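Worked example 3. Consider a protein that binds acetyl coenzyme *A.
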Amino acid sequence: MDLSTVDIKRGLEGVIFTETYLSAIDGDAGRLSYCGYDIGDLAGSASYEETAFLLWYQRLPAENELEMLSAWLRANRHLPKTVWGIMHSLPEQATPMEALRTVASTLSMFDRSCLHEVEGGSSLCRAVSLTAKLPTIVASFDRLRRDRPPIEPRTDLGHAANLLYMLTGEEPDPDDADALETYFVLLADHGMNASTFSARVTASTLGDVFSSVVTALGTLKGPLHGGASQRSMEQLLEIGRVERVDEWFDQRVAAKQRIFGFGHRVYKTEDPRATILRKLSRQVAERTGNTRWFDISSRLEEKVLSHPYFQERRIYANVDFYTGPLLYALEIPLDLFIPMFAIARIAGWTAHMLEQQRNNRLIRPRAYYAGPRDQVWNEMVQRTPLVEAQPDIQCVAGRPANCPAALEVPPRF
Ligand code: ACO
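Given these inputs, the predicted complex is written out as structure tokens:
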């Protein structure tokens, strides 16, 4: 079998590896639902805690059930004392996503509260614990790096309101808290996206919830996935004024550079989350009296939608496009956009881990080996170097100071 005859599903496009009862995406109709409930009905009506209940238990909670889950989540918002020492010792240049990934990983060593292993009980317990703690980690890190003392979480505030409170120290405007809560609901789950898939791969090894969440955090960070929300806002900042959109767009297209916040592997029409976020973003902009970023994004979207290149490829705004102006209007720092995504998506990640482990099979695809075969091993003295000899190689910070550039280039066949 040679490479040209192998049916490689690069990026696993179109591959169905499992069934799920969590979210359904109709990429042609532009519809998304969680456990059968349309995202349009959930957004603005369900709280994040209610949405987490829906994903974890696959049904909507009755009032007392939601009260119980909310109390459970809220009681888990505090970080163990020893974790503060680690937070304080993070290097100055640590980014919020690096801090989040590191501290989330560290928590596994301190969290021994859920040791009973009853039918996935401990996994759900850890899912609750991490879902509750992610906002505390993000807000505390943000304050520490600004030389401000972290603020203890409050149990009388909802998920989004408590996060805004921990960031600023002030009780937020209820409309701001509602807008962020809706954002969290909209992003809570989304089929087999890259970070969820990676979380399920880890779960399929019977790895623990912490390991799966850390895997997912690492995957989310990339600019083709969760990183696009930050990049799409950076684009708006780079454009600066609505009058500059057309020129910026033409240059970008001419340079064949991607426009962040557009395109999707599954949606070949408008992402239904973008529809809701556009509206939310406009409302927040109008309420705060600053429509500048919303206006730039609207104009940019018009340019994209009317350009044949994007029309031919059925490229529309995705969830990350209107996330930018929304979070920016809520005064969320730019580099907290990806952590915000993580804070929302953890309900979905953990629901998928639980689902994976209920009917588990180790996820282990194959790759076609395309390199040379039957090579003859020869002694070192017989090998021809591709790199010039370097006497006296000095190692600085784990890397040869006079490392020949050729060694840094990955090999290609
Ligand atoms: N800007 C310009 N061109 C684009 C864009 C874009 N945003 N997205 C896709 N294209 C073009 C590609 O260049 C390619 O063109 P070609 O056929 O001439 O080679 C064609 O459309 C198909 O692109 P692919 O990358 O093959 O499509 P895929 O389904 O793999 O891409 C992806 C999906 C990665 C999201 C892509 O649209 C992209 O890079 N978008 C920008 C980054 C972004 O916004 N990511 C967030 C996605 S949503 C999320 O993860 C939460």
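Take a moment to read the result before moving on. The chain has a mean pLDDT of 92. The longest strand covers residues 23-26.
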